[in-house]
Design goal:
UDP N-Acetylglucosamine Acyltransferase, domain 1, globular, mainly beta, six-stranded mixed beta sheet, 176 residues
């Protein structure tokens, strides 16, 4: 892949050396962030993160995406990843809008297609290290916490802490 192809690709990651290198510098961040469908102010993508189908990823203001995080949207299926304002995403988080179909036991799964569904991470959420948010989850609630190592398979309500495999509500976050 030549330099122009790397700069115009709909994805970034450590395997695309130019984009990986650009994430180390403020001016490079600006170049990369323009690939997003929408990008707010004060957004930081740390090196070694992977974003696929960036034209279907929206990021609000004051968002940090730590190293090793992987975000997979799907432009052809119109499945977006929307990250609202003031969201923290720890290292090595995986967010994926796609799931392989596997209803036909006589056919290899690779030939059965995929199902895609958009995911929204609401304002003020915190996604802990090594958490996985799977396809089928449409919302991570406002001011909620996804604990480290959690595997989220269902929507998360506002103001709660979820953890475990599969993730379950551990506690509610109360005012005052």
């Amino acid at each position: 892949m030549n330099l122009l192809q790397q700069l115009t690709a709909k994805r970034i990651g450590p395997d695309i050396l130019v984009t990986h290198w650009l994430l180390h510098f403020k001016f490079g961040q600006k170049v990369i962030l323009k690939k997003l469908s929408r990008c707010g102010k004060n957004v930081w993508l740390r090196p070694n993160c992977i974003l696929v189908d960036m034209d279907s990823i929206e990021i609000g203001d004051n968002v940090v995406i730590r190293p090793g995080t992987q975000i997979y949207a799907n432009t052809s299926a119109k499945a977006k990843v929307i990250i609202e304002n003031n969201v923290l995403i720890a290292p090595n988080v995986v967010i994926n809008v796609d799931n392989h179909n596997y209803k036909n036991p006589d056919m290899p799964i690779i030939f059965q297609g995929i199902t895609s569904k958009s995911i929204t991470i609401k304002e003020g959420a915190w996604i802990g290290v090594n958490a996985v948010i799977l396809s089928g989850v449409s919302t991570i609630g406002k001011n909620s916490v996804v604990a480290a190592g959690a595997v989220v398979t269902k929507d998360v309500p506002d103001r709660c802490v979820v953890g475990g495999v599969p993730a379950k509500i551990i506690s509610m976050i109360r005012r005052g």
